[in-house]
Design a protein that fits this description.
heterodimer; A: about 425 residues; alpha/beta; 3 domains; 8-stranded mixed beta sheet; 7-stranded mixed beta sheet; globular; B: Alpha-Beta Plaits; two-stranded antiparallel ribbon; about 20% strand
């Protein structure tokens, strides 16, 4: 069996202590395997940044009681889908107690969450090695058999690349070439401190409830992408996500777009008087299923962002749940490989079978057309403007005689650059894509 | 107004272990100049790591890097050598 006869330091070495890496490591240790979890940051979480909420139901399978035990911020019971124009802010405001029973989504601060997750891994028997950057992989022919970090070498049966969207480990393995810029976006985020009471008043919340806004339109000055804003316990995370091809083409500056969104007249009142706690940025995979390829090699498995598991459906932006789900699938396949003593690619390809059995593989497939739909430039400009013009026509009682809503809508539509055929096509694409 | 301060002032609030011995970003200045990539790198970096010189080359304030990898993703092939800072170095997010 390839690799099985070699002496190893650990059964499995996981590179990266984010959600995907921690879930993989935890599950393998819980099944009795020796696992090393290597993290380049001085503490797990210290290099990590999220710009979305954690759809955390999947964690109950990994760590029952996750929502009550983990350092989560608020339980999301209010989701707002918002269209922003220079003068208007149109919201679909969906609030539902059912989202809290059981808890469906939470906000998290990764510095706290990932440290906790890695602590749970240690409790399960994982050896955690923080502050160590893995430089490269060790090969034996086609087989990956360990890692190099500085002068240190450590050997294992299976390496798990959980090193995030830039995955230098996958690149070192030669399996994931550079993505086109239309598959990538940069998220620029501020965490702004406000008191609990102020947050609960401004966002219309009680207790540990939370709100999450997904914003399109003027928040990015028309650059493909959007804005986000969500409540933590005593801070608000707010920022923009900007698709790199469009950001490059339109000549905008990423930090300026972030600042402009934060100080937009419709947004600023939420944040007024707040104190900046942290400013950060992170690369986001936006390619959907087209980025999910090359998941395994002999002795190597990629999970989470490193494997391209992120989804932007327009309504929901998902990464952490898919990271956890991919970690569960990877741990099952690696466990089976360890039991067989077979670390060939064919053996590890059980990972893909496991993925397709779960929501991870199936959702990536369901939303395969979402990225193409999200490329539509009208989403970031014209549609929001028409929507606000329709509402303006309804609410602006300027003493001129009223028309019914339909003619009002048609008038707004006719004044926009949108064409009927185009809109019908877009609606069909939306129905198929998201 | 939400007082964010300048980008440099914001980064002052972050915690960094600066690698005094080596930069994790190397620039092929000739390639940056000939491809005209400098202004793009200046714009896309949310941490304002890059600055444009009059001759088309760029300055690199690597200690400010937030390690997102955006510059590497948009740079012309070969213009940047960018990897994560050495073990234990670079930014430490306390919120995330």
């Amino acid at each position: 069996m390839s690799g099985a006869a070699e002496s190893v330091d650990f059964d499995v070495i996981v590179i990266g202590a984010g959600v995907a890496g921690c879930v993989t490591a935890y599950q393998l240790a819980a099944r009795g395997h020796s696992v090393l979890l290597v993290e380049r940051g001085p503490k797990p979480g210290s290099k990590n940044l999220s710009g979305g909420i954690f759809y955390c139901r999947v964690m109950e399978e990994v760590m029952p009681g996750f929502v009550t035990e983990a350092p989560v911020e608020r339980r999301i019971t209010r989701n707002c889908l918002s269209f922003l124009s220079p003068t208007s802010f149109v919201n679909v405001d969906y609030r539902d107690q059912r989202l809290a029973e059981p808890v469906n989504a939470v906000t998290v601060l990764r510095a706290k969450l990932d440290e906790w997750l890695a602590g749970k891994c240690e409790e399960a028997g994982v050896t955690l090695l923080p502050g160590v950057k893995v430089d490269s992989l060790i090969r034996n022919g086609d087989q990956f058999v360990g890692i190099k970090a500085g002068d240190d070498e450590m050997r294992c049966h299976v390496v798990v690349a959980a090193d995030g969207v830039n995955s230098f480990i996958c690149q070192d393995a030669g399996i994931r070439p550079k993505e086109p810029t239309k598959h990538l976006a940069v998220g620029v985020k501020s965490v702004i401190r406000l008191s609990r009471e102020v947050i609960e008043d401004r966002f219309n919340l009680t207790g540990n409830e939370g709100a999450a806004y997904a914003v399109v339109g003027d928040c990015t000055k028309g650059v493909a992408g959007g804005g986000f804003m969500y409540t933590n316990i005593d801070s608000v995370s707010i920022g923009v996500v900007l698709r790199l091809d469009d950001l490059a083409e339109r000549g905008e500056t990423s930090s300026d777009l972030h600042d402009r969104f934060v100080n937009h007249p419709a947004i600023e009142p939420f944040l007024r008087g707040g104190e900046l706690l942290e400013y950060g940025c992170h690369l986001v995979a936006e390619g959907g299923q087209s980025m999910v390829h090359d998941l395994t090699r002999p002795g190597l498995v990629a999970v989470g962002d490193a494997a391209g598991f992120t989804l932007n459906t327009g309504f929901t932006v998902r990464g952490m749940d898919l990271a956890a789900g991919s970690g569960i699938a990877a741990a099952k396949a690696i466990d089976a490989a360890l039991q067989k003593g077979d670390f060939s690619q064919a053996s590890l390809d059980d990972y893909k079978v496991e993925l397709d059995r779960t929501f991870v593989g199936q959702d990536m497939n369901t939303y395969a057309k979402a990225p193409a739909f999200m490329e539509n430039p009208r989403l970031y400009g014209d549609y929001g403007l028409v929507l606000s013009d329709v509402l303006y026509g309804i609410y602006n009682l300027d003493t001129s005689p009223r028309k019914h809503a339909l003619p009002t809508a048609m008038a707004a539509f006719n004044q926009s650059p949108l064409k009927v055929v185009q809109v019908v096509k877009d609606v069909l694409a939306a129905l198929r894509g998201v | 107004m939400v007082d964010l301060g300048s980008v440099a002032e914001r980064l002052d609030k972050n915690h960094y272990e600066t690698d005094e011995k080596q930069s994790h970003i190397e620039v092929n200045q000739d390639l940056v100049r000939t491809t005209g990539a400098g202004p793009l790198l200046v714009r896309i970096c949310a941490a304002h790591v890059y600055s444009l010189h009059d001759d088309g080359t760029i300055g690199v304030l690597y200690a400010a890097c937030l390690e997102c990898g955006t510059c590497l993703a948009v740079a012309p092939p070969g213009a940047l050598t960018w990897h994560y800072p050495r073990s234990g170095m670079g930014v430490t997010y306390r919120e995330g």
